[in-house]
Amino acid sequence: MTMQLADFEGEWRLERRIVQADGVEARLQGVAVFRAVPEGLAYEEIGTLRVPGQPEMEARRAYLWGPDLSVWFDDGRFFHRVPAEGGETGHWCDPDQYDGRYEFEEWPVWRVTWDVRGPRKDYRMESEYRR
After folding, report:
1. How far apart are CA 66 and CA 68, in angstroms?
2. Which positions ≥6 away from 55 have C-beta within 8 Å?
């Protein structure tokens, strides 16, 4: 399946698992909304983050997705490009490397996995989106 920007528009239930290299596992449950704007789709997520041994906290994130499936941080910096048919992508955030994989085989359920490695970060983040 080849994805187009319009395929993502709307509201999605978001479940995320973040596993640190030491085995500590955090979970996030929330929603992600893709809203049409002149530049593409504004992505906003909000959820409850649960980290063992800490109080629950609200987590938020925002990006801009361009018509070519480019993803930009909310401050205007380029993040990565989503492979239209799924697959690998990446982002160097000095000094850490982000290696991502998009999976669309079970559309409209889709997944994104990021393996983050470097001197400051060492974790795997798995996100699942459902209508």
Report:
1. 5
2. none
Please tell me the total count of domains within the chain: 1
- Coil vs helix vs strand at 128: strand
pLDDT digits (tens, 9 = 90+) for 46-74: 999 999 999 999 999 999 999 999 999 99
> How big is the chain by its Cα radius of gyration, in Å?
15
Assess if residue 57 is contained within a domain.
Answer: yes
Distance of alpha carbon 120 from alpha carbon 112, whole angstroms: 21
Whether 77 maps to a domain, the answer reads yes
| Within-domain flag for 115 | no
C-beta separation of 71 from 79 below 8 A? yes
Contact of 116 with 123, CB cutoff 8 Å = yes
Within a domain: residue 45?
Answer: yes
Q: What pTM, to 2 d.p., does this model score?
A: 0.95
Instruction: Identify the domain containing residue 31 by its residue range.
Output: 5-85
